Amino acid sequence: MAGLRSVLGGRSVARQVFLLVVVIVLLLVVAAVVALVLQVRHDTTQEARNRSLAVAETFANAPGTIEALESPDPTAVLQPRAEAAREQSKVDFIVVMNTDGIRYTHPRPDRIGKKFVGTLAPALAGRSVTEQITGTIGPLVQAVVPVKAPDGEVVGLVSAGITTANVGGTADRQLPLVLSAAAVALILATAGAALVSRRLMRQTHGLGPHEMTRMYEHHDAVLHAVREGVLIVDDGGTLLLANDEAHRLLGLPADAEGRHVLSLGLDPGTAELLASGRVATDEVHRVGDRLLAVNQRTTDRAGVPPGSVATLRDSTELRALSGRAETARERLNMLYDAGVGIGTSLDVTRTAEELTELAVPRFADFATVDLFDAVLSGGQPDAAAALSRTALSGIRKDAPLYPVGERIRFVESSPQGRSLGTGRPVLEARLGEAPGWQAQDSERSAQVVEYGIHSLITVPLRAGSLVLGVVSFWRCEKPEPFDTDELALAEELVARAAVSIDNARRYTREHSMAVTLQRSLLPRNLPEQDALEIAYRYLPAQAGVGGDWFDVLPLSGARVALVVGDVVGHGLHAAATMGRLRTAVHNFSALDLPPDELIALLDELVGRIDQDETEEDGSAPVTGATCLYAVYDPVTRRCTLARAGHPPPALIHPDGSVEFPDVPAGPPLGLGGLPFETAELQLAEGSRLVLYTDGLVEDRERDIDVGLDMLREALSRAGQSPEDTCRTVLDARLTARSSDDIALIVARTRALTADRVAEWPVPADPAAVGEVRAAVSRQLAEWGLDELTFTTELILSELVTNALRYGGGPIHVRVLRDRNLICEVFDSSSTSPHLRYATMTDEGGRGLFLVAQLAERWGTRYMPAGKVIWAEQPLP
Fold first, then answer.
1. How many beta carbons lie within 10 A of that of residue 360, not counting itself?
2. Is the pTM of this model over 0.70?
3. How far apart are the two ends of the chain, measured CA to CA in Å?
4. Please, are residues 664 and 679 in contact by the beta-carbon 8 Å criterion?
5. How many whole angstroms separate alpha carbon 574 and alpha carbon 514?
6. Least confident of 98-112, 144-158, 522-536, 564-578
7. In sequence order, what are the residues at sequence separation of 6 or more whose Cβ sits closer than 8 angstroms to the Cβ of residue 334?
8. How far apart are CA 668 and CA 688, in angstroms?
9. What is the pLDDT of residue 542?
10. What is the rounded radius of gyration, in angstroms, for the C-alpha atoms of the chain?
């Protein structure tokens, strides 16, 4: 209360503000109440008009109203309806009358038959009319609506009315509540004004307008008279006040006050400091040709608006300090940029180039990097070996320095030689006076000095105990020589680059090892065979090595197996796993197994590999290994395929049409538990079978279905030869290096014609052996292979005799003339013969031994109905 009395007493600014606020609030409350009353009245009248008109029109247009008016006793029909409608619509009356205004209905029955009081002429003319009158029941609003026959003639009138008291009663009952709320608002506003005035009293110290004006004039005179810039900035960064000295020192525009400090054209550092409001003590900023010492403090104290006050002093004696600070900041920026910009790739040469590009022209006019040759290939540096100029950057291109690619041997007396020998940086402040450097190459040294290069820093590239090379920084344009501070900066810069170069060297070594391993595991040359004309492509991934592989494997009976596989992942582990799987496929194919059985054995092998590696070192299993195995028989032109999680093959028919055969997709290798299925295709001669890995049709940017569509389109326009097909597919696919390996095989089928195949059935009679020998002799004579008659007869005699003795019927013999002469004996037994050494007392057991000695290769392959024993002899 004491504070309130102090506010109300006297002629202070606070008292005037309090009274002004109270009067304004009072006027606003009175205006609000008056406006509310007027609005309520207007809304009440409008609501009455709308409701009465709506009820009258509804009743007039209701079904049966016209018929009731034309009835003998309209009152008997309409009175109950009107009263029911009145009660439901909450109006005070509904009156139905004839065109003369005689009432048929009324809430009071004694008024029925009397003339209606109101305006009827518009309604008789066919228009609705609403009017506000004072009737027997008080002020009311009534509407008169015509009742029209179907031909448009007015046959009666309907009037509905409601008193304004019934409509506006609710608003009238709410008026006391509104007035109470207004009173409360007035009390609260008065209390708030008192609090505001009390705070204003503290701020103005109880001064009146004249005293405050006089004090402001004195303060303003002092503020602009001092020779130190003063600025006041609010917490939003808006300049509130700047004295004359601040305008002069900062070059502020005349309308600076009231604008944001960032829009005043100040240098970025000064503007950022003023806008941030942070505390600063003698912080030096360069503004034009001045060095300003800036002090800034916040004004966040009790009773003071938030913001900051900054003072400026022109400190020309701090120029040297500012120069050193600028140099230090530039060096820190350079070191930061070195950490970000050097080593962006795992390439030794590119990393060296990034170092020279960063140093020129910020630190030196020319910069060179010389590395040992072994470092470029990922090996250990040899101190006795020559160096190769790996990178060179300069402000000009005509400097007489060793060019990139030049092999250099630095003499021990040269700065580079001393750096390499001692492992320490060397500073040659005056290059023309350094005799040890000139001994390197007197002619080139003279050209360098004549060119204007006068100062040199050499720093060894050290990674731990290894010296990878040397970096040289040359100065030409700036007349001052390098100093010891710059030597320390160069050493730090090169140290950061050395880590990146060593990482790139290690990566190059490991990558080369992985690539060498991978290439050694892939086929270098395809085996010779006549069943398929084959072309292939293998493209490694953009980074690292992968696990894609392929093979072409000749089988017995002139058949050929094609295999394509993929071990998902990159690196040595994937390449080594690929080699193990490829070796396993080679071994399994020698067993002449069907594709599904071979894939099953491969699946079991991958499962064992996973189990062994997980038990030994907890490494990740070989997840994602896939394989497709196909066997083509040129005699029957059948191709049998099976796949384990691999993309389906593509088939190009001789007419150029392309399809993807439906080969059952088994699970990826290593999952186990599920059988694999085969698909058998009958291929016309000249068909092209296309096998590939998923890197050809799938990547991170598109789905495999899109890739298959693109492959189909490329195959449809490929040339006839497998080479043309490979070229067309890869040209359509590889717009850039792939992120995954790609293996592609295109095989065009050939058929072994009937004139190169001879086949005879063998009766179950030992005497049939002689007949077979005679038939074979005739066939060999026809083929011009008389030289092979004796050995072939002996081989077939032994094989047919074994089939008759140990096998089962039916038995038949087939002889194929391919790159080799192939003899095959079919029987229905599944018992495999075994090669053994017979003793001197044995009567038999030498048959297969003779076959093995006479034939180049021999073996057994199993079929669903028996087995085939085959032997191959080279053609003369």
1. 18
2. no
3. 131
4. yes
5. 10
6. 564-578
7. 358, 362, 363, 489, 493
8. 26
9. 63
10. 53
| Better pLDDT: 534 or 23 | 534
Contact at 8 Å (CB) between 307 and 234? yes
Using CA atoms, how far residue 783 sits from 139, 536, 795, 866, in Å, is 132, 34, 18, 29
Tokens of 574: 């994937």
Backbone angles phi, psi at 162, to 5 degrees: -145, 140
Percent of the chain surpassing pLDDT 70 = 85
Q: What is the pLDDT of residues 311-361, one digit of tens each?
A: 888 776 445 555 565 666 777 787 788 878 888 888 888 999 999 998 888
Using an 8 Å Cβ cutoff, are 828 and 810 in contact?
Answer: yes
Residue type, 164: T
Question: Tokens 């079919």 sit at which residue?
Answer: 826
CA atoms of 493 and 496, how far apart (whole Å): 5
| Res 858 pLDDT > 80 | yes
pLDDT of residue 216: 63
Lookup result for tokens 């029911």: 84
DSSP string, 320-368: HHHHHHHHHHHHHHHHHHHHHHS-SSS-HHHHHHHHHHHHTTTT-SEEE
Count of residues for the chain?
A: 876
What does the buried/exposed string (b/e) look like for 270-302 if buried means 16 or more CB atoms within 10 Å of the residue's CB? bbebbbebeebeebbbbbeebbbbbebeeeeee
Per-residue pLDDT, 210 = 67
pLDDT exceeds cutoff 90 at 637: yes
Strand spans (E) along 517-618: 532-539, 546-554, 560-570
- How is residue 732 written in tokens? 């359509």
CB under 8 Å, gap of 24 or more: what pairs does 243-252 form? 245/312, 246/312, 249/287, 249/290, 249/292, 249/312, 249/314, 250/287, 250/292, 250/312, 251/287, 251/288
User: Alpha carbon of 370 to those of 353, 455, 788: distances in Å?
Assistant: 11, 18, 68
pLDDT band at 3 (very low <50, low <70, confident <90, very high): very low
| Dihedral pair phi/psi, residue 57, rounded to 5° | -65, -40
Query: Helix count (H) and strand count (E) of the chain?
Result: 23, 31
Q: How far apart are CA 392 and CA 377, in angstroms?
A: 19
Mean pLDDT over 424-442 rounds to 83
Task: Write down the pLDDT at residue 222.
Answer: 65
Q: pLDDT at residue 2 above 90? A: no
CA separation for the pair 638, 681 (Å, rounded): 6
Phi (first) and psi of residue 372, to 5 degrees: -65, 145
- What Å distances lie between residue 576 and 236, 543, 600, CA to CA? 65, 17, 21
Token code pair at residue 203: 């701020």
- 282 Cβ contact partners less than 8 Å away, ≥ 6 residues apart: 293, 294, 295
Inform me whether the pLDDT recorded for 121 exceeds 80.
yes
Query: HSE (CB half, 13 Å, CA atoms) of 118?
Result: 32
Distance (Å, rounded) from C-alpha 295 to C-alpha 286?
14
Is 107 strand, coil or helix?
coil
Q: Give the residues across from 138 on adjacent strands.
A: 135
> Quick one: which H or E segment has residue 60?
helix 13-60
Cα–Cα distance measured from residue 645 to residue 680, given in angstroms and rounded to the nearest whole number: 18
Highest mean pLDDT among 56-65, 186-195, 482-491 belongs to 482-491
User: Which tops the pLDDT comparison, 208 or 317?
Assistant: 208
pLDDT of residue 60: 80
